[in-house]
Amino acid sequence: MRFKKNWILLFAFAFMLSTVLAGCGGKNADSGKTLIFGRGADSPKLDPAIVTDGESFRVTENIMETLVDYDKTTTNVKPGLAESWEKSKDGKTWTFHLRKGVKFHDGTQFNADAVVWNFERWMNRKDLPKKGDDFIYYGSMFGGFKGDKGHVIDSVKALDEYTVQFRLKKPQGPFLANLGMSPFAIASPKAVEKDPAEFARHPVGTGPFKFESWKKGDSISVVKNENYWQKGLPKLDKIIFKSIPDNSARLTALQSGDIDLMDGLNPDDAKTVEQNDQLQLFKRPPMNVGYLAFNMEKKPFDNKKVRLAINHAVNKEGLIKSFYADLAEPAKNPMPPSIWGYNDKVKEYDYDLTKAKQLLKEAGYEKGFKVEFWAMPEPRPYMPDGKKIAEYIQADLKKIGIDAKIVSPEWQTYLEKTQKGEHEMALLGWTGDNGDPDNFLYVLLDKDNTRIPAQNVAFYKSDKLHDVLIKAQQETDKKKRTELYEKAQEIIHEDAPWVPMVYATPPLAAQSYVKGYVPHPKGTESLENVDIVK
Amino acid sequence: MSMNAPTMPTQEPMQPMSNSPMEEKESAWQDTWRALLRHRSAMIGGIIILFFIFIAVVAPLLLPFGYNQIDADSRLQAPSADHWFGTDDLGRDIFARVIYGARISLWVGFFAITGSIVAGSLLGLIAGFYGGWRDVIISRLFDILLAFPGILLAIAIVAMLGPGLENAMYAIAIINIPTFGRLMRSRVLAVKQEDFVMAALAIGMKNSRILLRHVLPNSWTPIMVQGTLGFATAVLEAAALGFIGLGAQPPEPEWGKMLSDSRSFIQSAPWTMIFPGLAIMFTVLGFNLLGDGLRDILDPRMKQ
């Protein structure tokens, strides 16, 4: 009997010891404030200059910074790594005065030479991490690369240690806003020169957080930069970006406390989050558009009446009620009203099946036709459930005689094939990156962007629109640009290459102890002001 | 179970040689039928299946809602007097969809299994009766098909043919061929040794006539049992293909697809998945019960 008692005592002791030790562990983790950010997918690459996707920028924005920055909730430009700047009268010369005393994470000095080195890297396409990579976004925002006819930047020079001068071949309206985009963040020249491939796995910048580790397909950790130039920031000691692909699984992880903040909440679950005291709901200000693009190079979508008929057959209000839990507005233009230059005078094509039928009849398709209708397989911020949305539209199309077959290949294939124009009509969407109308209208609908791989998946080629958009690009007076973009939206509305469907407000959720998080309209943000207060 | 069932085709194959073969056959049928009526679980299975067939055929005529009647205002409603099974995320009536789903599932199951029975039995007959190189080729073909996990092979076939209900049906038919083929082959090998086949050969009857008149009628019972059980598997396989998006395409109300569509509402609207799930369960249960019962009744060894 005594033997037995001893055993019980031993077990009790071991149990107590383990509880105490475990408790200690928990405390340590708390005092080192760690935030776990749940998101839908891992970052493809961590060199922001060679990617265009949000999941990459979401991480690199915390590690690397740009010359100019955007305000917290708008895309108004404010100082970033450059404290101030001037523009010459003709709009062709820009001079930036850089912040002093900023250091890269590897200890090298941030200065004018580093800025010049970065821009020359992009325009000369050197130090690419691997074959097949390219500085895609640089090419599409600055009219190509050095030697190209449309290339905007003539030269970048260091006037002194902290002054950089850009000379442009022609004025570019969105130039300043472009410089704030995540792909144009300044990298440590030393780190890139040493090994560009390694840099794409281990970025080095001047940002509030330093890269720590990357478990491919699972998580990326960044830790506090103790020498950050903004005193007192960042507030967190560590951020872990964890990928959980399924939206409902991610919410379950949040509810059980495995993660602290999550992106990509199902709009239907917004209510659940609001009713939960432990959680808080965030709404990202809308700067996106979800649309249905017709491939105008294929029959019957070369016929404007057919395109108009389908415009009249899409019940946007019903869609918003069904899939967005009212967290969206019906769209009528290819860019959202949160962007300046939005033309509110454009009159929406109303949901009217009789009219749609009439238009089909006029177009010579009284008996309707068969069509492949592409829908994205994964939830996107502008379209929480592409396949279901397609199913909803399919029912209305059936009523006007159009027999739509829903096709939904895997996401990467979906993008590649629509960019090649293999679709007949396809659902897609776009989140703006710099708040300029050019970033929507030119990128998505200009004839320049119909070369394969095309961003303009409607393959809409209008010379009239092209003239207006190029003029607006070279104009630097905002008032004149506004007029030109309003004109552009009228032209697009008239030709109807799309059904503009919604401007969505993507919801996010967090634990109630997460403070200071402000979602930015461009879809990702730096988290230096976020704190955990328990 | 019947105590003194006198004649079964498998048991006393020489019997039909008597002067009134029709009568004998009928009595065998009647006998089986009577045994079936007395077999409780088979009866329950049969009733479930008849019920599903009945609603699939008749009920769409009586429904107030179409299966694809979208109504954004009444989405995700809990079961009520208007919507017996509630509504899904597009505001469609789940009761209507489950009932139309019965049409799809039974249709797929029936044609897929009929297809594999016809193809499988034919190949099995040839392999078993002729033997030799024909047997080698056909049996190895079955081995190859059986080497793959069934659903994986089905996915591969659908991936080749393109997603869709009809292609899913072909895939299910193909993956079930070896089951019936091997069964038929083994029966034929046994029946081939029977005296009446020998006798037929001896009097110079044509091979095709022996196959159709003597071998086939004496080998079909296990196929029928397997067919009933296979029906259940086929319904499940169709649902599985629908679930991963390779079977029925929207807006077809296939049960498996309904299940996968409702995954995001498990917490907020469980009825969107409970009812299609129950429908699959009961159909499969029905066919399994009937199949088991049939096996009990038709297997001569179980009878003694």
From TrEMBL, chain A:
Pfam families: SBP_bac_5 (PF00496). It is found in: Cell membrane. It is a lipid-anchor. This is ABC transporter substrate-binding protein. GO terms for molecular function: peptide transmembrane transporter activity. Residues 1-22 form the signal peptide. It comes from the Bacteria. Residues 76-449 form the Solute-binding protein family domain. InterPro entries: Peptide/Ni-bd, SBP_5, SBP_5_CS, SBP_5_dom. GO terms for cellular component: ATP-binding cassette (ABC) transporter complex; periplasmic space. Keywords: Signal, Transport. Belongs to the bacterial solute-binding protein 5 family. GO terms for biological process: peptide transport.
From TrEMBL, chain B:
Residues 1-23 are annotated as: Disordered. PROSITE patterns: ABC_TM1. Pfam families: BPD_transp_1, OppC_N. Residues 102-291 form the ABC transmembrane type-1 domain. InterPro entries: BP-dependent_transpt_permease (IPR050366), MetI-like (IPR000515), MetI-like_sf (IPR035906), OppC_N (IPR025966). Keywords: Cell membrane, Membrane, Transmembrane, Transmembrane helix, Transport. One of its GO terms (cellular component) is plasma membrane. The chain crosses the membrane at residues 42-63, 104-129, 141-162, 228-248, 269-290. It is a multi-pass membrane protein. The keyword Nucleus does not apply. PANTHER family: D,D-DIPEPTIDE TRANSPORT SYSTEM PERMEASE PROTEIN DDPC-RELATED (PTHR43386:SF1), OLIGOPEPTIDE TRANSPORT SYSTEM PERMEASE PROTEIN APPC (PTHR43386). This is Diguanylate cyclase. Belongs to the binding-protein-dependent transport system permease family. One of its GO terms (biological process) is transmembrane transport. Residues 1-17 have a biased composition (Low complexity).
